[in-house]
Amino acid sequence: MADASIDWAALYQKHRDAMFRVAKGVLRSSGRVDLADDAVQDAMVSLMKSPPTETPRNWEALLVATAKRRGLDMVGSAAMVKGAVLEEERASSASEQDMEEVLERLEKMALVRAAIAKAKLDARAHYVLAQYVVLERPRAEVAAELGVTPARVSQIATKVLTEINTAVTEGG
């Protein structure tokens, strides 16, 4: 539960650039700089859900460290590592026709990433997209973490996927 005495919006406004730079630096090694915003949002959501029990001496240090941890979590996530390994395996063992299919799929993935970036999703929508849609976590677990009903998680996921599909269709 978020502590009402903490002005999260002001803290975010003041330290978001530093958080973004650190997350971007961590994610650069994996070639996924596009996830820096997600790392910052995940950091803010986790701190809001579980605020520090004592007032930190340096809020910037806490926020930056949390964004760095989220970036490192993303770099080491099984989905990212598994996805990269699968794409490499497909590309290395593919025939010429298979290679064309892989390239087409990668182009579609790039369109989807661009559509997600353009969608300007809020933190909750990003969380649902990452946890429920991409990582396929149970709807009830995601709902409990967000403090909403499982039906609301489905609604958010449907809305996000519709926005992404529309953006990809219009963009391509």
The low-confidence parts are none
Query: On the 0-100 scale, what is the average pLDDT?
Result: 79
In angstroms, what is the radius of gyration?
18 Å
Q: Total number of helical segments?
A: 8
- Number of β-strand runs: 0
**Helicity level:** over 70%
Termini separation (Å)?
Answer: 42 Å
Classify the secondary structure makeup into a structural class: mainly alpha
Largest sheet properties: none
Shape: globular
Order of helices and strands: HHHHHHHH
Strand content: under 5%
Short account of what is shown:
By secondary structure, the chain is an all-alpha fold. It is built from 8 helices and no strands.
Explain what you see.
The chain is mostly helical and 172 residues long. The protein has eight helices and no strands. The chain has helices spanning 8-28, 36-49, 59-76, 78-93, 96-119, 123-134, 139-146, 150-171.
List the helices and strands and how they pair.
Blueprint: H1 8-28, H2 36-49, H3 59-76, H4 78-93, H5 96-119, H6 123-134, H7 139-146, H8 150-171
Helix pairs in contact: 1-2, 1-3, 2-3, 2-6, 5-8, 6-8, 7-8
